Amino acid sequence: MAAPGASAVMLPVAAVAAALLEASEGCVNAEELAGRLFLRPGLVRAALERLAEAGGLELSGDRACIADRVELALAAVRLGVPETAVARGLDWRMFEEYAARALREAGFEARRGLRLHGRGGLELDVLGLDPAGGLAVAIDCKHWSPRVSTPSRLRAAAARHRARVERLAASWRRLGLPQGRWRIVPALLVLRESVPRLAEGVAVVPASRLRGFIEELPVLAEEPAIHVVRLEA
């Protein structure tokens, strides 16, 4: 059974986490944050304590400072804060790191910023690898505002990413990636909630469903509608 007041403590955690991540300053005062959010100072302090315990935030008296913005985002999600709410508080580089750390938390090896120059070059945001299952996921992170994430733009991005994953498979050895049999699932990670599940054979994943998507990867890798690229040993 939850301790008395636990539900009350959890109510402002999402608002506090979002405010911290969206703020340009690295440190905030609990009293000032309470006034900004129209919440009781005691509730804000309790929420800050929960976030500090979960990771990424340091507390000193009434002053809270972000030690690691991506870790704070992941900690907030572990506490039940919607992923989209925290992802909006990250810039595009942090959005990529957020995806990479989510993969690592799920047991994947994660690599960021794979590059090959020259003709037929390659740029890939995040690659997750599960050697035991021979399963890989190639993620293109689109930190677009929901307003500009139109269906036509998503389809175009998906088509480009599908071709990118084909180049990834062709360049696998040159990139020094682990050899063997692999199934590579292509995915776009977006902020918008109302998006098609698939576009051009590529999984379209709202940030709010990232963890569930990672958990479902073994099943998705067998889905005929997804353009899974297979590598033989």
Automatic annotation (TrEMBL):
<dbReference type="InterPro" id="IPR007560">
    <property type="entry name" value="Restrct_endonuc_IV_Mrr"/>
</dbReference>
<dbReference type="InterPro" id="IPR011335">
    <property type="entry name" value="Restrct_endonuc-II-like"/>
</dbReference>
<feature type="domain" description="Restriction endonuclease type IV Mrr">
    <location>
        <begin position="89"/>
        <end position="151"/>
    </location>
</feature>
<protein>
    <recommendedName>
        <fullName>Restriction endonuclease type IV Mrr domain-containing protein</fullName>
    </recommendedName>
</protein>
<dbReference type="Pfam" id="PF04471">
    <property type="entry name" value="Mrr_cat"/>
</dbReference>
